Amino acid sequence: FSGGDVADSLAIVPVTAGRFDLTATGGPITAQLDARGIVVDAATGGGTLTAVTPRRVIDTTVPAGRTRSSVAIGGGVPSTASAVLVRVSAVDPGTDATVQLSAGAQAVPAGAALRIPRGTTRGNLALVPLGTSGTVQATASVRARVRVDVVGYLN
N or C: the chain end with fewer CB closer than 10 Å? Predict the structure, then answer.
């Protein structure tokens, strides 16, 4: 990336005593960090994050402000999963765009899982809760080709 670029990136990081480290190399940066949730290990009553063979669940053009949903369970994701780890990408929007991901039939979140500059293709990972019917939904701010691949789940 060069100066002025904006890049989204999901990181699942260990937290020790309520803290984690952020290190930048190559000069000063401006970073915005959003905590989207926590994963508690199974030993303390939480779940387990499990990788699966990637499976595309959304591959469509999403009209501006509209939502597309798809069933995420199956293909290695059990019906007991509470969330899925997905790779979301958007291809060549005509103007700067955002994509929000959420549980199926739920309100669209305020934060973006992905920000895409006009004329580029970008991707990011996101941990998305599943709706009651095992669905996830993608909402685009502008007309954009959106792809969502399930790559893991939280059980």
Answer: N
Read off the tokens for 20: 């984690």
131 close to 106: Cβ distance less than 8 angstroms? yes
Question: What are the pLDDT tens digits along the chain (155 aa)?
Answer: 566 666 667 777 777 787 888 777 777 777 777 666 666 666 666 678 888 999 999 898 888 888 888 888 888 899 889 889 999 999 888 899 889 888 887 777 777 888 888 888 888 998 888 887 888 888 888 888 999 999 999 88
102: part of which helix (H) or strand (E)? strand 97-103
The number of helices, as runs of H, and strands, as runs of E, in the chain is 0, 8
Q: Residue 113 class from Cβ within 10 Å (0-12 exposed, 13-18 middle, 19+ buried)? A: buried
Q: What is the dihedral of CA 41, 150, 116, 12, to 10 degrees?
A: 10
Distance CA 8, CA 32 (A): 10
Closest CA to 57 of 75, 39, 41, 81: 75
